[in-house]
Amino acid sequence: MKVLVAYASRHGATAGIAERIAEVIRAEGHTADTVQLPAATSVDDYDACVVGSSAYLGHWEKAASAFVREHRDGLVARPVWLFTSGPLGTEEVDEQGQDVRESAAPRELPELIDAIAPREHHVFFGALDPKTLGVGARVMRKLPAGRKLLPEGDFRDWQEIEDWARSIVRALA
Could you give the CA distance from residue 133 to residue 129 in angstroms, rounded to a whole number? Predict the structure, then answer.
């Protein structure tokens, strides 16, 4: 099978997740292409699609949401999986007792699920390298709570990412 792994990544962490997903799919004997959005691409040549985005302030990158909307008909016609890269840190539950993965799900998710009925949506922990941040985020990190809200580090769980990619391969079998 031929799988498209399309992603929108602001600082590169989501790109790393997308690449690892594609590597696992290839290792399991399928063809997988990675495309950084907003590249002009079509889903027509693919048997399945994985679409992912980083999430900031509760939203997917516009390029990823636009891709799903623009390719709705093609995505509905094939198996699709969605993923979000977002939460930072190692805690699964925040100080208010809420699941940080659920809190990181983008506000667009219900609309996207209704539009294309993906097989699954998964939230992965992200990464933050302060050198890649814009001015606003750098200023925010200087505030007293800033480093707690935006902790530096790579929090991606590669085993979890690989296991999820293998679950996609199993579903394609």
Answer: 7
